[in-house]
Amino acid sequence: MAKESAGGAASAEYDPHAFPPFAVTADVAVFTQTRQGLEALLVERGEDPFAGCWALPGGFVKPEESLDEAAARELEEETGIRGGAYLEQLRAFGAPDRDPRMRVVTVCYVAVVPRLPKPEGGGDAARAELVPVSRVLSGRVKLAFDHREIFRAALEHVRTRLEYSPIATAFCGDVFSLTELRAVYEAVWGEELDPANFRRKVLGIPGFLEETEGTRQWQGRGRPGKLYRKGKAQRLDPPFRRAG
Amino acid sequence: MAKESAGGAASAEYDPHAFPPFAVTADVAVFTQTRQGLEALLVERGEDPFAGCWALPGGFVKPEESLDEAAARELEEETGIRGGAYLEQLRAFGAPDRDPRMRVVTVCYVAVVPRLPKPEGGGDAARAELVPVSRVLSGRVKLAFDHREIFRAALEHVRTRLEYSPIATAFCGDVFSLTELRAVYEAVWGEELDPANFRRKVLGIPGFLEETEGTRQWQGRGRPGKLYRKGKAQRLDPPFRRAG
DNA sequence: TCAAAAGTGTTAATTCTACACCCATGT
DNA sequence: ACATGGGTGTAGAATTAACACTTTTGA
Description:
homodimer; Nucleoside Triphosphate Pyrophosphohydrolase; Arc Repressor Mutant, subunit A; 7-stranded mixed sheet; 3-stranded antiparallel sheet; DNA-binding
C-alpha cells in the first residue's frame, strides 16, 4: 500500500486504487428539551451486532454528498426537521474495532431542535425514542458500538457551546420568553440561575436576542414575559459564562 | 446501496460490502514558534493534482490503526517528535470534490510542538518547510485541495484553545519562563500583554503551571526569570481570557 | 386580594487594568 | 552604574452576585 497521502507530500507513483477502503457514516446526537428536562433521540437496533441496544441515528455517507449534507439528511429522516435546526460537526470516531463487521469511520454531529414533533422514525427506523439524558449517563440505557463515548462528547460539546454560541435558542421555538431560555441553561447545566441577573447578562450580549412585540399568553399564574427571537450573532461576545 | 447505518437503526438485511468505499486520510496542522513568530509545517507537492502547491502533512489511515494513531504517526514521520506534543483532532473534512481523483474524507488534527529540530521531511517528503502563518493567511502560499480552509480552522482552533487549555505550554520546551509563555500568547493572538498582569493571571489558574528551582541563564540583559513546568490541569479554570 | 412570575434597582464583593516601583543581572 | 527585563504593589474601573423591591397578570 502506498504510504503517500492523498493530500500530503509527493511520492514516486500514484495508484488510485491503492488505499484501504473505509465505510464512512454520519451519526447525529439530537438533543431537545421536554417536560422531563434534557432528552436525546435514540433508535433501537433490531439486529446484531448490538441487537436490542440503542444507538445514535445515522447512516452511510452517500458518494455524492458532503458530510454536512449527510448529517442533515439523517436528521431530517429521523425527525422530519429540514432546516433551521442547529447542526454542527463534533468530530470523527474511527477506532479500528468500533464496528466488528468492518472498518467504519463515523463523523459525528450534534443537533439541537425545539420540542420534537413526535418520536416517530422517519419511515424505516425500528423504534426511535426520546430518552432523558440522565438515563443515558447513568448507564441504564445500553448503547451500541462506541456510542456511549460519542454521546458523552456530544453532551459536553453542547454544555460548552452554551457559553459561546447562540445554541441555546435552538432548543426554543421561533420566539421564546427569557424564562424559557433560562430553563434551557438550567436544564443543560443542571444549576439554577438568578432570573434578574440572567436577564441582564443575556440582553447585554450584542446580537444574541432580538425583541419582538408579543408576550407569552398561555402560561398561567404570573405576569407574562416578553417574547424574543434569536439575533444575528454567531458568537456570544462576551460569552454567557456559567457560574464559577 | 443500503440506506442502513453501520451504527444506526435496524433494517431487514445487511450486506457487509454494500457501502460506498472512501479513502480516509489523517492530516496534521503543525504549529510552532520561531524567531519569525508563529509558523506552520507544510510540505510541497511534487505531482498533480496541485503539483507545486503546499499541503498539510498527512497520509492514509492504515487498516489497523486508529485515527489518533495515524495522526501521531504522520506527526512523527514529518517532525521526528514521538510523544509529549499536543495533538488533538480538529474535525473531518469530506466535500465530495475535495480530491479530484477519488472520494477522500480527511480527519484533521492540530499539533503544537516546541521549536522544531529542523524542517526535514522524515524520509520521503519532497520538501517540508516551516512557513510563517501570516504568509499562509495572506494567500502568498498556494495550498492544495481544501487545505486553506482546513488551515484557517486549525489556526482558529489554536487561538480558541489558548484560553481554555494548557496548549500554550506545548509551544515551549520542557521548562520555560513566564516571558517565553507570554510570547506564545502574544504571537498567537497578535496583541501585547502586560507582563505583571499576565504573571498573576497565569499563576492564579490552579494546576496550569508548576514551579521549578531553575532560572533562565542564557538570555542576556535583565534579571533571569524563574522556570516553570506544565501542570496537571487539563482545562484552564478560570480560563485565561484574551482582552475584551 | 393574593400568589406567582416579570422586570428594575442597589450594593458589597470580586476581578480587571494600568502603571508605579523595587529587584537582580549582564555589560 | 546603568540598561533591561523579572517581579510586587496598588488604586480606580469594571464586572459580578445576591437580594430587595416594584409591576403585572391569573385565579
